[in-house]
Specification:
Protein name: Signal recognition particle protein
Bound molecules: guanosine-5'-diphosphate
Strand content: 5-15%
Oligomer: single chain
Radius of gyration: 21 Å
Catalytic activity: GTP + H2O = GDP + phosphate + H(+)
Largest sheet: 8 strands, mixed
Helix content: 40-55%
Subcellular location: Cytoplasm
Keywords: Cytoplasm, GTP-binding, Hydrolase, Nucleotide-binding, Ribonucleoprotein, RNA-binding, Signal recognition particle
Distance between the termini: 13 Å
Subunit structure: Part of the signal recognition particle protein translocation system, which is composed of SRP and FtsY.
């Protein structure tokens, strides 16, 4: 499970504090050095770790903590609060348009889980009473259209496609017209991915963005790729100014660095997390619950 290694190490470092009645500045220093190492080993961005540790340290050697009857508990509380802050503080929801349909554009690199997540998100919204339409705009990967159709039929969500001979911008525009006529209140556009970020892909995504003016651009990144996921997020965000991130494969043995770095590095929230291959395994991301899970 993600964060397993980090959780063990952080808990170990903080448990040592619990065995001391009163804390000295040196005790906090030693613990923070261990916290720092644990975060770096979990592949959290170096700058993020430095800032995190210095914030926790500063707060921990404050009057209230050192003078309190349970200083170790206070330090743990601070670590919990700062982990929560690092991941965005509170959950970040989808902004629905007051004038439906709400248009959601999914983007990301090939293999990140974009098509699966487009379907999962449709399923989640359908359960909440929405009437989504999935749109197949990935015309390059041979099986992508078929894959979205299979996902749609499993979830009983309609899929709009025009084959692979049309320009994705035209497909997206036609899909929105179609959706409006059919009363779809959410339109989820699955765009093309590539193995690496390239100009052509970005240009295509920028064109779609310009033409359809989405309410939400969600970037799908693979948690297993660690700091690469953070770099991908930085790059996509720079070009597209995304609204949020979906972090997939958090059910795997990712070390957790992406989850803890993306918000701080890009200033964009993680909105959902993928917790498995099954189509109902997409969850709203709750920073506070994730922090509590890390601290046990
Ligand atoms: P795309 O190329 O970005 O559209 O990626 P796909 O949607 O085809 O997904 C790539 C692979 O990742 C597939 O085998 C998915 O089943 C798998 N996948 C997607 N999301 C998750 C997740 O949250 N957990 C796990 N374990 N696998 C996932």
């Amino acid at each position: 499970m993600v964060f397993e290694g980090l959780a063990k190490k952080l808990q170990g470092a903080l448990d040592k504090l619990k065995s001391k009645g009163k804390l000295s500045e040196k005790d906090v220093d030693v613990a923070m050095r261990e916290v720092k190492l644990a975060l770096l080993e979990a592949d959290v961005n170096f700058r993020v770790v430095k800032k995190f540790v210095s914030t926790v340290k500063e707060r921990s050697i404050g009057q209230e903590v050192m003078g309190s009857l349970t200083p170790a508990q206070q330090v743990i509380k601070i670590v919990n609060e700062e982990l929560t802050n690092l991941m965005g503080g509170t959950e970040s929801k989808i902004e629905f348009s007051s004038n439906p349909p709400t248009i959601i554009m999914m983007c990301g690199l090939q293999g990140a889980g974009k098509t699966t997540t487009a379907g999962k998100l449709g399923g989640l919204l359908k359960k909440k009473g929405k009437f989504p339409l999935l749109v197949a705009c990935d015309i390059y990967r041979p099986a992508a259209i078929k894959q979205l159709e299979v996902v749609g039929s499993k979830l009983e969500i309609p899929v709009f496609s025009m084959g692979d001979k049309q320009n994705p911008v035209n497909i997206a525009k036609a899909a929105i017209e179609h959706g409006k006529k059919n009363g779809n209140d959410v339109i989820i556009i699955d765009t093309a991915g590539r193995l690496h970020i390239d100009e052509e892909l970005m240009e295509e995504l920028e064109n779609i963005k310009q033409e359809v003016n989405p309410n939400e651009i969600l970037l799908v990144v693979d948690a297993m790729t660690g700091q690469d996921a953070v770099t991908v997020a930085e790059n996509f965000n720079e070009k597209l100014n995304v609204n949020g991130v979906v972090l997939t494969k958090l059910d795997g043995d990712a070390r957790g660095g992406a989850a803890l770095s993306i918000r701080a590095v890009t200033d964009k929230p993680i909105k959902f997390v993928g917790m498995g291959e099954k189509l109902d395994q997409l969850e709203t991301f709750h920073p506070d619950r994730m922090a509590s899970r890390i601290l046990g």
